[in-house]
Design goal:
Keywords: Aminotransferase, DNA-binding, Pyridoxal phosphate, Transcription, Transcription regulation, Transferase. The protein has about 475 residues and is an alpha/beta fold. About 45% of the residues lie in helices and about 15% in strands. The structure holds pyridoxal-5'-phosphate.
Length: about 475
């Protein structure tokens, strides 16, 4: 950062900028544990600010246990406060690497993948894909020679607008729709546009682990709110909104990942009102509302929101066509223009071919009929998993939709050893702590029933339960 750069920053805010600067460098691993930090005098000169401004930033970092002081010597990086293991190991990569725990788990090959909340590719109507692809080339012979617009193909945005208006009572125009390459990109764009370091972000506890990593990377102050089988405690939500004035609330209210819980309809209206009252944007991540085993879930928050405070993200990756990586974001035009600008900085639009194939495939009668079969297949797999785990003494609430069981293991579970031994025996699962913004929940795990067929589920779960027994009782006998 160059000298005098903060001249145009309001004096009250300058110390925050210095604070962010120091924190970011520690986070990236450029300044290492126990390393001496630049002196107050040096930083004040570099930023062109008063020494007291830098002093204030250091004091806050000290309070937060990110730096420590040695008498008459200066400030030093507190060990273990921020650095990811990757950053500690590789100083060159460290400046660019941010923590992403779930992807690390997915990178490990395993014969029994209980960690993947993805659809088994065998459950998709694969035989018919080539028909759609051929159709698309017949209809749009120049499709490979053309970019999409950054906001997304107009024909697709219009079709989605009609679909969401009819099916979910959305009040929507195609200008309020953005196509992204998966909802992961959408979360990232939203975070980049809306979250500045130390902004408060309200977030489900537990939640979709990569969202934690994205908001953390932005330097957000995460404010966890517990989600249970009956949704939220609304008095708690209101208290947190009042106290922290969060910029946004990231939530996944329908068959939540990892818990499978659904926020009931009556809470949705009230939450939309609270969001409007406290000017807190609701980021509604909704990757699997079609995967229900009994009743259809309630309408999305977006349908209840009359104040324009909701950004709705719908992935079509999870069960329509993971290989196409298509998701939709819906929000009001003021916000949309920022998201489109942010997307234009990372790509020139999601590939047009993917958008056109998705358009013809998703809105076909065959796909819509296929959803019915998919629900049945996944309900059976869930039942198989529950049956296999019935004798274990583990606890869970049977989900009414989605891809996962969220399981509480006994307090005495040696989680680290369970992870390592399972991995050695080619079994993967998601430890609950990575879904927790507080990194606690150490005796919870997420097991997905969506990726393996029934036979693999049975075999893998028997082995997994066997490993657990052996670690906890010394016997592998079921
Ligand atoms: C809650 C949630 N959000 C986002 C994603 C990412 O979806 P996509 O594959 O569209 O990037 C997932 C995928 O597991 C998810 O469960």
């Amino acid at each position: 950062m160059k000298s005098g750069l903060l001249k145009n920053v309001h004096p009250e805010k300058r110390f925050e900028q210095v604070y962010d600067y120091i924190l970011e460098r520690i986070r990236r691993g450029e300044w290492k544990e126990h390393e001496k930090l630049p002196s107050i005098r040096m930083l004040a000169a570099e930023f062109g600010v008063h020494r007291l401004t830098v002093f204030k930033a250091y004091q806050l970092l000290k309070q937060e246990n990110k730096v420590y002081v040695r008498d008459k010597s200066g400030y030093y990086v507190q060990p273990g406060s921020l650095l990811s293991p990757a950053a500690q190991q590789d100083p060159i990569v460290s400046a660019y690497v941010h923590e992403s725990h779930l992807s690390e788990i997915h990178q490990v090959e395993a014969a029994y993948q209980f960690s993947k909340a993805l659809l088994d590719p065998n459950l998709l109507p694969n035989r018919y894909f080539s028909e759609y692809v051929k159709n698309v080339f017949d209809l749009y012979p120049k499709v490979l020679g053309t970019y999409s617009t950054t906001q997304g193909d107009l024909e697709l945005r219009e079709a989605l607008t009609r679909y969401f208006t009819k099916r979910y009572r959305f009040d929507l125009t195609h200008d309020e729709v953005l196509i992204t390459s998966g909802s992961q990109e959408a979360i990232d764009l939203i975070a980049r546009v809306l979250v500045r370091p130390r902004d408060s972000v309200l977030i489900d506890r537990p939640t979709y682990s990569p969202a934690i990593d994205v908001f953390r990377r932005q330097g957000a102050h995460l404010v966890p709110i517990g989600i249970g089988p009956d949704g939220y405690r609304l008095d708690q939500v209101e208290e947190l909104m009042k106290k922290h004035k969060p910029r946004l609330f990231y939530l996944n209210p329908t068959f939540q990942n990892p818990t499978g819980y659904t926020v009931p309809a009556e809470q949705r209206k009230r939450l939309a009102d609270l969001a409007a009252e406290y000017r807190c944007l609701l980021i509604e991540d909704d990757p699997c509302p079609d995967i229900y085993f009994g009743h259809e879930p309630p309408l999305p928050f977006f349908a209840y929101d009359t104040a324009g405070m909701t950004i709705y993200i719908r992935s079509f990756s999870k069960y329509v066509a993971p290989g196409l990586s298509i998701a939709m974001v819906a929000c009001r035009p003021g916000l949309m223009s920022y998201l489109v600008k942010a997307k234009s900085l990372s790509d020139s639009g999601t590939p047009l071919l993917n958008q056109k194939i998705f358009l013809h495939y998703f809105f076909s009668e065959r796909m819509q009929r296929h959803l019915e079969k998919l629900r049945t297949a996944l309900a059976i797999r869930k039942d198989v998993m529950e049956e296999e785990l019935a004798g274990t003494g583990w606890e869970w609430k049977s989900p009414e939709g989605g891809f996962n069981l969220w399981i509480k293991l006994p307090e005495s579970t040696p989680m680290e050893r369970l992870l390592v031994t399972s991995r050695e025996q080619s079994i993967s699962f998601v430890p609950g702590s990575i879904c927790d913004p507080l990194r606690e929940l150490k005796t919870w795990i997420r097991l997905s029933y969506s990726f393996l067929n029934e036979q693999q589920l049975r075999e893998g779960l028997r082995r997994f339960a066997g490993i657990y027994r052996e670690l906890t009782t010394g016997s592998n006998e079921g």
